[in-house]
Specification:
Blueprint: E1 8-11, H1 17-21, E2 25-27, E3 31-35, E4 43-47, E5 53-59, E6 65-71, H2 79-94, E7 102-107, E8 116-121, E9 124-129, H3 132-135, H4 138-148, E10 153-158, H5 162-165, E11 171-177, E12 183-187, E13 190-194, H6 209-216, E14 223-227, H7 233-240, E15 245-250, H8 253-265, E16 272-276, H9 279-288, E17 293-298, H10 310-326, E18 328-338, H11 345-359, E19 363-369, E20 388-394
Helix pairs in contact: 2-4, 6-7, 9-10, 10-11
Length: 416
């Protein structure tokens, strides 16, 4: 693979503004002409309609995102280039978590390496390869990783649906070295298992590390509902925070089994119920049964995968949060998350407002957060921000729906 471009891409008039502002993507409908043949994933120089140089990018003729800039200069794109970018990413994270051995090392566009994500689990790595431009440079990437991180074993995570848009197959496999089926790693003070070869995401949901602390800080003495619990990390934090009881819900028996093992290896088990079921169905059943919780955690998978799905996805988020709000005790807390990029912060807040109205529960915003610092955001690249986490508090008791306008013995007046 050539380290220097042999082709040139010229943008149409006025189509250079986003690139000049710092975004690395060039869409196919922004291209005026292509000179030379870069080949699949090959390098080319990008210039504006006047011929001014904008950077070097890799190219995919079959993708809507036709080019992704790797550099604004004239760097050779080789193993040394990738090693320098990884070293820069490591320095950034060393300032925040100098001794941390589990976390995101490289976050694609945010670390100026579009299409490449590297997560570290101690001496092992999970490497996401998302684009054709990275796929054809795997030898360079591997050499750079070996020089900068010296892993014992690496899993190549290439099963993200976005790869189909790049014309790439979906797979997940051992890339090199040795990786156990279940890694025992220390994460946020707990010993938990991470399945790099078969688990969700790259093994753990690393992006929620600080948000789980927010739930932990509000768990003391409360009955907790952990919906979409996966391997139980939210439950572990709630228990360490002093929760008196936790119900953890997930549709996957495998996830619940892993949650049970995580609870056991951390010395927890008493006061925890692991319940298998669809979280939407379970929340409706609990609400009908009149159950109440002091803390509810909602961390569902992304329910909006495209702009066309926003309306349907927003309805799902609205109903999920309505049911959770309805079950909160007086002054109870809801920690609610969305990892759907297409549902931005403003839209998510609007969904929560509509949920509160439907639940007839005034809600106070205690905190609003997103990704941790090892998932940095580029100001010019909104796609690097996707995670929303709202911490809300219910004000007053919810009026029993069985109560009419005339009070009966079991119907205390609702507080305001």
């Amino acid at each position: 693979m050539d380290s220097r471009p042999g082709a040139r891409l010229t943008l149409r008039r006025n189509q250079d503004r986003r690139v000049r502002a710092g975004h690395p993507w060039v869409f196919s409908n922004e291209i005026d002409r292509l000179e030379g043949d870069p080949g699949p994933g090959g390098l080319l120089e990008v210039q504006d309609h006047r011929g001014a140089f904008l950077g070097r990018a890799y190219y995919n003729a079959h993708s809507l995102i036709a080019a992704r800039l790797l550099t604004r200069g004239r760097d050779d794109i080789d193993a040394d280039f990738f090693a320098r970018r990884i070293e820069r990413a490591l320095r950034l994270r060393a300032g925040w978590m100098p001794a941390e051995r589990v976390g995101r090392v490289v976050y694609g566009e945010a670390d100026l390496l579009p299409g490449l994500v590297i997560d570290r689990y101690g001496e092992h790595l999970a490497v996401q390869v998302l684009t054709l431009g990275i796929e054809v440079r795997l030898d360079m990437v591997r050499e750079a990783i070996e020089r900068t991180l010296s892993p014992r074993g690496v899993v190549r995570v290439a099963d993200a649906p976005v790869r189909t848009l790049e014309g790439l197959p979906l797979l997940r496999e051992l890339w090199w070295g040795e990786v156990p089926e279940r890694l025992d790693v220390e994460f946020e003070g707990f010993h938990v298992e991470a399945d790099l070869l078969h688990g969700q995401k790259t093994g753990l949901f690393l992006d929620q590390r600080l948000n789980r602390r927010r739930a932990e800080a509000r768990a003391h003495g409360r009955r907790v509902l952990d919906a979409f619990c996966y391997q139980g990390e939210w439950t572990l934090h709630a228990l360490r925070g002093g929760a008196r009881e936790v119900m953890a819900v997930d549709a996957s028996q495998g996830a619940l089994a892993a949650a049970g093992r995580n609870l056991e290896r951390n010395g927890f088990g008493e006061g925890v119920t692991l319940r298998r079921g669809d979280a939407f169905d379970v929340l409706r059943e609990l609400e009908r049964a009149g159950e109440r919780f002091g803390l509810v955690v909602l961390d569902p998978p992304a329910m909006i995968k495209s702009r066309r799905a926003i309306a349907a996805g927003a309805r799902a988020y609205r109903e999920l949060n309505r049911a959770a709000m309805a079950m909160l005790e007086e002054d109870g807390v809801l920690v609610t998350c969305s990892c759907s990029h297409h549902l931005d912060d403003t839209m998510f807040r609007q969904v929560l407002l509509e949920s509160a109205r439907a639940a007839k529960r005034p809600m106070r915003v205690l905190d609003w957060a997103g990704e941790p610092p090892d998932h940095p955001q580029l100001l010019a690249v909104p796609e690097t921000h996707y995670l929303k986490c709202g911490v809300l508090q219910a004000l007053g008791r919810r009026r029993d729906p069985r109560c009419g306008t005339v009070a009966t013995p079991h119907c205390a007046p609702a507080e305001t």
